[in-house]
Amino acid sequence: YLQVFLVEKAGRRSLFLAGLMGMLLSAVAMTVGLALLSQFAWMSYVSMVAIFLFVIFFEVGPGPIPWFIVAELFSQGPRPAAIAVAGFCNWACNFIVGMCFQYIADLCGPYVFVIFAALLLLFFLFAHFKVPETKGKSFEEIAAVFRRKKLPAKSMTELEDLQGTEEA
């Protein structure tokens, strides 16, 4: 329930980035904790705290925020298809991680979370450079942000386009 209040106060993009960075640091801490466990018994506590922090950061950012952003990036027509594709990708990736984690852990040993840290770094960089803030913006404003980046010559929004076809 905390997420409902945070998302409107802090913004979607900032929470998403903070969650990704927190998960990245937690994955690094888990790797360090697991790698040094044989030398320092108290590293098991570091690993446990890192796991809890990983889950907390996931629940603050990358867990719920993509669903907000996907719903806000697409207009009413393509929104159901976009959410279906996002849901499929989400569950497919969950399935792949669930099925492959044990094999990867057997291969990588205590360094298994380095893979997650690398992926989280890539996700963070992508979100930082490509994902706009959608808090308090209409679909038309968000679409205008993408048009300025990709198609500066096009000035008509989807809504204006639809209004133009109704008049004709």
TrEMBL record:
PANTHER family per the UniProt record, alphabetical: SOLUTE CARRIER FAMILY 2, SOLUTE CARRIER FAMILY 2, FACILITATED GLUCOSE TRANSPORTER MEMBER 2
Membrane-spanning ranges: 15-36, 42-60, 81-105, 111-129
SUPFAM superfamilies xref list: MFS general substrate transporter
Protein name, entry field: GTR2 protein
Alphabetized UniProt keyword annotations: Membrane, Transmembrane, Transmembrane helix
Gene3D superfamilies: MFS general substrate transporter like domains (1.20.1250.20)
Subcellular location: Membrane
Membrane topology: Multi-pass membrane protein
